[in-house]
């Protein structure tokens, strides 16, 4: 009887332990599953936010490209050419205007290129007010690509601007007397 009782007790203890073990394992699975779900949700949220940022950036970029495209279409293709005769700044400007163009306006670094090998008039001057440089469309100069020491308004008589291609491309403007004769850098 004693022996049987002992066996029954052992069985009972083993069963209880087994029950606890199974419960622990199933509980662990539940926790793992829950943690996995939370991680997935977090990843989905982060991915969604990143995609939203990318979409916003791409939309901004698309809008900017559309604006640039519209602006180019409005202006049409830009064409540069050089006058064929040596003339004063005003006469060079007239030469350009007679051909549906004007002296060039260089308001970006991209346009500050040396297309020609000789010195040419550009569409910039301070004839109206000394020291206040204006383009031929009456806009004020914002960024200049001056040669060292220029503009110096030498002898108080230098109001028209030339481009000197033999100098570094971002430092080759000089003011000169408007009556000097040069070819004009025209933009159509
Ligand atoms: Ca001047
Ligand atoms: Ca000068």
UniProtKB/TrEMBL annotation:
Keywords, sorted A to Z: Lectin
Domain C-type lectin: 75-187
Regions that span the bilayer: none
InterPro entries, A to Z: C-type_lectin-like, C-type_lectin-like/link_sf, CD209-like_CTLD, CTDL_fold, DC-SIGN_domain-containing
One annotated GO molecular function: carbohydrate binding
Keyword Nucleotide-binding included in the entry's annotation: no
Family matches, as PANTHER family: C-TYPE LECTIN SUPERFAMILY MEMBER (PTHR22802), CD209F ANTIGEN (PTHR22802:SF471)
Name of the protein in its database record: Si:ch73-343l4.8
Source organism (scientific name): Sinocyclocheilus rhinocerous
